[in-house]
Specification:
alpha+beta, 7 helices, 5 strands
Length: 170
């Protein structure tokens, strides 16, 4: 199976691999639904370069994301797959870090759209102003909490990996 052209890096992964240790089986059962996944699941045709629109965490772990400083995955509820806050989220974080991404910011559940947009914008603003990734997320959460005190919004976000400042490309 070729690496989908709509994702970064190279490498391949066999999602049907049976000799994966038991603790890694979750890498086969979790993933992301990308553009085209709904079309494919409804029996529609996709361009060959789009693959099936599904990217398993095992496929993600096989990619080369070593030049990726930050992956942000705020749940939007737009996909057909159910996002759970348990092992699937952990497997996705783990796969991105195994692939070489320095840091991952994602939500544990789907926050309200307004809060999600405001918090992500505030997080990016702070990162681009020179704050470390961890500090930027924490301070963005504090700022959004003042406007939207319900923790179902601002508390949905978490970060794993490198918390330092983003490197500026010269």
């Amino acid at each position: 199976m070729a690496t989908p052209s709509y994702f970064l890096g190279g490498g391949t992964a066999d999602a049907n691999q049976t000799n994966v240790p038991r603790r890694d089986k979750l890498l086969q059962r979790s993933g992301l639904a990308l553009a085209g996944a709904n079309t494919m699941l409804r029996g529609g045709a996709l361009p060959e370069s789009a693959g099936d629109g599904l990217l398993s965490t095992q496929e993600i772990a096989g990619l080369d994301l070593t030049a990726t400083q930050l992956v942000v995955l705020p749940s939007t509820g737009a996909g057909v797959m159910e996002l759970s806050s348990g092992p699937g989220v952990i497997a996705l974080q783990r796969a991105l870090l195994l692939a070489g991404a320095a840091a991952v910011v994602m939500t544990l559940w789907e926050p309200p759209a307004t809060v999600r947009r405001e918090l992500v914008a505030e997080f990016y603003r702070r990162c681009l102003a020179g704050q470390g990734r961890g500090e930027a997320l924490r301070e963005a959460q504090r700022a959004i909490k003042l406007k939207h005190p319900d923790p179902r919004g601002w508390a949905a976000f978490m970060s794993v990996g490198d918390i330092s400042m983003l490197r500026r490309e010269e």
